[in-house]
Amino acid sequence: MKRTRNKLLLLILISNTILFLVIIAAYHLAASNHFLRDAERTLQNEIAALDESSGAAYQPTYLTGNIAYLYLDAQGNLQIDETDSFGERMQYRKEMISEKAEIGRMFQENEIQSGVCVPYRTARSYYVIAALDDYLDETGLVLVMYINIAPFIRYAKSVNLVLFSLYIGISVIMGMVGVHMGSQIDNVREAEQRFFQNSSHELKTPLMAIQGYAEGIQLGIQDSGRAAGIILRESEQMAKLVEELLYISRLDAGHFCPNMQETELREVIFDSIRMAESLAEQKDCRIIVEPMHQPARAVCDEQQLTRAVLNVLTNAVHHCDNEVRIQCICEERHIEIRIHNDGDQIPAEIIPHIFERFYTGRQGGSGIGLSIAMEVVRLHRGKIRMVNENDGVTCCITLPRSRMQ
Which pTM does this prediction carry? Predict the structure, then answer.
């Protein structure tokens, strides 16, 4: 049942890989074009500086120090010296000597206009070349200036390691996020499946009972009075279950709009007690409210919060031995409603699942009541938890205190 998680992880990795390859390709293209344009601009600045008649101001760039020179005679042969005409050691001399024949063919096969920058690739180099016709009139040689931008492009490619590290880091982070989100989606789907299976089972039980006793009445083998009472009880139980299912579905769909007002929580507690009195009488259970010495006001939907407290109180009555105690503790920022029953402690393995829908670890009702209480408390930006104590079990509901107090 982890198919969504695996699909999401695979989608993230494929998307990241494609994005990484696109970024690498775009970066390499941009880097090559960038250095090519800068080399052309640098050579044009140098040409303008050599032309004394232009009167242009010299504008060096970061590539100016990488300009090298060679000479072309009337027969189109290259002459490569140790130093250029300014006495500076030739740049890229070794590369030029090894690629002399290839570069010579380029000049023989192509007509290079004076002062025009021409890019030319070899196996190991990437030259940007500009020729100046008869610059040295007394020798009849053509001065050729060039910049080899291959080292700069190779250096730019070293950024691939940084980009690859970013790719790995981002992929790991997004993969972890994808696994987490996919797991949540899978868990929600599994919870929905369990929800429908359990709700179908819970509805099927009273329906079977109603059908069985109705058939018994029809065949005359059941006492009509007793059968009618059971049918009525099961119908009420089924109606309550359907109402709880509809209520929790509205909460899940976000269709529930709470009517938030400042409310005295003592009213919520005593309203819940009144509605639980009949069950407490059947169980011979005493409900004791600890004295509250100060107002306990919170902004809440009184009707819905009463429902949540009633569900917790009903659960406590179901599992108590003799009594249920209720405390309302006011703190600086929060109010805590503690509902304690003196029944058996909850097994440790059950506590993490106690508020899950239809989870009935011990004998109880449908398993929806506590889950509804949790949803309502969360809706009020509060927290709910179940705690084992030496003399029983306590359910703690923590709500934000009203700022007007």
Answer: 0.53
